[in-house]
Every structure is written in structure tokens, then in C-alpha cells.
Amino acid sequence: MNAHQIDQQTLLKDEKDPLTHTPVHLLSLEAVGKHYGNIIALRDVTMAVDNGRVTCVLGDNGAGKSTLIKIIAGLHQHDEGTLHVMGDARKFSSPREALDAGIATVYQDLAVVPLMPIWRNFFLGSELTSGFGPFKSMDVQKMKDITKKELADMGIDLRDVEQPIGQLSGGERQCVAIARAVYFGAKVLILDEPTAALGVKQSGVVLRYILQARDRGLGVIFITHNPHHAFPVGDRFLLLKRGKSIGYYDKKDITLDELTAQMAGGAELAELAHELEQLGGHSDALEEVKAEVAGVTDPTSGSPTKRH
Amino acid sequence: MTLTETASKPALGDERVGQRNPLQKLLGRPEVGALVGAIVLFIFFASVSQTFIQPNAFATVLYGSSTIGIMAVGVSLLMIGGEFDLSTGVAVISSALTASLFSWYFTTNVWVGVGLALVVSLGIGLINGWILVKTKLPSFIVTLATFLMLTGLNLGLTRLIGGSVSSPSISTMDGFESARAVFASSVSIGGVEVKITVFIWIALVAVASWILLRTRVGNWIFAVGGDANAARAVGVPVTKTKIGLFMAVGFCGWILGMHNLFAFDSVQSGEGVGNEFLYIIAAVIGGCLLTGGYGSAVGGAIGAFIFGMANKGIVYAQWNPDWFKFFLGLMLLLATIVNLIVKRRAELK
User: Fold this and answer.
1) Is residue B218 within a helix (H) or strand (E), and if so which, with residue range?
2) How confident is the model over A79-122, as pLDDT tens digits?
3) Which residue in A299, B46, B214, B310 has a CA-CA distance of 20 to 30 Å to A184?
4) CB distance from A114 to chain B under 8 Å?
5) Closest residue to B235, CB basis, from A109, A126, A136
6) Are B74 and B256 in contact (CB under 8 A)?
7) What is the CB neighbour count within 10 angstroms for residue A97?
8) Which of A110, A111, A160 sits opposite B17 (nearest CB)?
9) Which chain A residue has the Cα nearest residue B1?
10) Could you tell me the pTM of the whole model?
């Protein structure tokens, strides 16, 4: 086990903006916390997002991933710590404010209207118009062309921008939503579990578009509970558990197996094995869990290593 | 997806697009089922009745269609926006009664009453829409309540002010003739008297189609009907769009109300009940999806035309008009089924 966490102080100071070469993060969180009444939803979370980097936020259900994106997207406000955007401390009071600051969120439901054509969805709420006063009409041809071009630039191989978006596959719809966010000037792109409802192949497609967005210079926050999706595309990994950060790693400091072990919670599995042993009579299940523990904690030697 | 000949396409083309043939494209339009139905019905009545295709008779058919069609324009837009309005039938009468009773009671120029009626009609729409977006109740409940209240108000206020079940005659009042010229005159085309409502109807359909297909507001109407939450998330003013749609229905109701008033000189306060369904039927026959997000203004117009043909055609064919309602129900069922099949077929290909 040689995964070592990023020293949070050095991380926040040493990173340089690849475009301006100044030590400013596109977006950074320092010791951010949030509580709803007496429930602590999130505490002491530190992370950073930079141009052309993918920051993955991993965690199981209830780990605080949603709370974290809601704070960044402006749906909730944090109670502790600071949120910096381009070096300025901010607290967003509405999603609109976050959008204006260049933070776009692609939610799981994608905010698309299934029966409407792709180009209408692409420009929905920000339609291009020409003409004056009561005779202002939409610039349909221009919008279609831009939609086609933007999607092609993202490498999305689309059939026809006139077809209803509901006819696209889940992965393609996800990609249209990403392309839309990119076109409308997003600097930080938050993707909320984009691969959760997708098959293996579709997930691969979406991961490729995450890389496309990264290569276009966006800072990407990729929320997921699947380390196999996070590891190939991520540059940094923030692990959340029960509202708390349990690790923040740079890609060079961690392997996929270590990430998986952290995610799966090797300690919990060992505990479960112990409980089953005490109960007795579940030999099959016990063997399975034991094998799992071995696999999860140290896949090379097979010997469980004590963590935490 | 069928692969068809694509070699001649430019480099930008995609081999999966195929050549979507124009017929297939046409079949994908919302109003096509209704159009087929309208043509079949026209041929049917033309073959059973000699009078049906004579210009004068046809002008009468168009007039009948227009009195439904004017309302169907607003109701179609509203339905595409995901709501429907049960108060439209009586709201038309409310508007006519407002104009008539106000100008009669205060002996003003009738145009003052006409103006006030417009305010009242838009106000009814505003109240419907406002209650809907504030309470988030289904439009069925909200507009059913408005329907009942307006029915009561129409009867109660007419008796209270005019002392009768019908509004007093205003034919001798100032401005009556000019208002009649605007709302209830006829235009002679090649010796055939065509009612002005036919032209108003066509103009409204044209404007509504333009709004729906070529303006931002049109995009928003489709979006709030298709998925209001998604629309809100991308910054579409959902509440304003919905309230605006109810007010557009109110505007159409005002036009029809003024026609009803000035075609004669008084209005029966108990009229209008049940008409709301005719408007909804026209929109549905015309391909508007009851659940919203899909449809067209032209479709609603074709639906109204089918209604007008069936209504008058039965008379010209010298059948007993008792059968009309049965016929209408059958048309509704067939049209919706045809729509459904056509839409599925077109989308699958």
C-alpha cells in the first residue's frame, strides 16, 4: 500500500494554472462543510479543479457527493470553509449565479425535453434571434448549423439534428448535454453520475466525451461511484464517505486497485466476514466475503492489510 | 435504421441518415392524421350530397369551422404547453355578456364594452394560469372550478343587471354597426358571402404557427409541455409561458365572444356550456398530444374543419342531426388512433 494523499497545503499552493501560469485554481474548496439543522452533510472537504484536468469525486450513496455538487452549482450554500472561483471567494445564492461564473452542471436527468428536436433542445432557454420588436424570430438555420458543428467538434457523430432527442441513446443524450454546457461558455463542468444508468459500451462513449471536454480546456468535476470509470479519465480523486473526505489523491500516487479498495471499504468487508464467522452456518457466503476482502484490500498478495 | 443510397452525399453526411423520403417526413408531422381524415370526410360528404360542394354551402361549412377554429388555435397552443382549459366555452359567453351588459347599463359606446370584455377575457386567463402555477394543481381542477364559477356568474349577473336570462338588445347603441362590421360582417368573394370569422381564423392560425415554429416563445411552449422541470433548469420562464398561454386562450375567447354578440344583438347567459369540449376535440383530432409537448396550430385548424364538415354535412346529406354527436365521438376516436399509428410508424422508420 503506497497510495499517499496529496498534502492539502501544497496542493492548494503549488498547482499552476496551465494557461496563465499563475498559482490560481479555476475552482477550489477549502475545508468546506455543510449542515442541515443538526445533520452534518459534509465537513472538511478540500479539493481543486483546474483547466484541462478532471477531478473525480467518488463515494457511495449518502457519502455527500450530491451535497458537494449542490454547493458548487449554487443550489445550496456552504456553512464552513471557503469556495474560490478564479481566486475569488464566492458563495452562490442561485444556479444562475454559478452559471454566470462559468460553472455548468449536467444532472442525471439531463434537463432535455424528449419530444423536441436536438437543435431546439441545444438552444432551449438561450435561443438565437434575429429581427426587432414583435417580429423577432429565431435564427433556425444558424442554430441548426451551430448544433451540428458543436456536436461534431465534440466528436459526436450525429445522424440528424431534427430528430427528437428522445430517440437518442442515453449516452448520446448525455453528450448533447455536455456539448451544450461547453458551447454556452462553461469553464467548470460538473457531471453528476453520467455513467450511472448506462451500459458498458455507452459508458465508454461518455468517458471519451469527458476527455474531449478536458482537452478543450475545461475543468471537469466527475461524480461517480464507479472507480473503474473514474480511474482512466481522472487526474485527481476525492473520496467521500459519510460526508467526510477519506482521501484525496493525485493519479500518480494511486493505482486502480487501491482506489477500488478505498471505495469498497476493505475494513467494512473484513468486519462483515468476522460477523459471519461468529454467526456460523454461512460457510459459502463467508468464503465469498473472505475472498472479496482479500481481493479488495490487496489484490497482489491476497493478504488483508490493516487500514485506517 | 435502413441503409439507403448515400454515395452521392457530401463528406459531412452520415451513412446512417439515409435518404428520408419526403412522404415519410410528411407522415412525421403532427397534423397529418387529421389531414387524411379531413380529405376522406370531404370526399365522403361530396359524394353523398350534391349541395355540399356548392360554394355557398361550403362557405357555411367554413363559417361553422371558424367558430370552433378560432378557439381551437388558443386551445391547441395551450395543450402543446401541457395544460387544458375547461372554462373556455362559458368564458366566451362571459366576454360577450361583459361587453353587452356594461355598454347597456352605462349607456356607453359599445366599443367601451368591447374593450372591457378584452380585459375580462385576458383576466380570466391570467387568473386560471396564476392559480395553476401557484398551487401546482392540475389544470383539470383549476379550470373546472373556473368553469362552474363563470357559469354561475353569467346567469346571476345577467339576471341582476338586465333582469332576464338573456342580455338586453344593444343594436341601437352607438358603435354597434362598426363593431358588427369588425366582428360579424361578411365579405363577398365571387358572389359567395364568406363570414369575416373565417379570415380571422386563418390569420390566427398563421400567427400561432409562426409563434410556435419560429420564435423563442414557441420553443418555450413546446418545452414547458414536454418537460417543465427540464425547461426550468435551462432557464425557460415556465410560469410566464403557462400564464401567457391561458391569456392567449382568453384572447381567442374574446374574439369569438364579440362575434357571438354582434352577429345578433344579445346573448343567452346560459350558453356555452359543453363547447369547451369541442375546442379540445378539435385540438386532439388535429394531432395535439393530451399530455403536451407535441402538436401544431394547423392541426387544430384541421380538427375544427373536420368538425365543421361533419356538423353541416349531416344537414346537407339530409340525415337526422341527432346522429351528429355519435359521429363526432367516432371521428375523435378514429383520428386519435390514426394519429397514434402514423406517429409510431414515422418514428420507427
Assistant:
1) helix B216-226
2) 888 998 887 888 888 777 888 888 888 877 667 888 889 999 99
3) B214
4) yes
5) A126
6) no
7) 14
8) A160
9) A159
10) 0.79
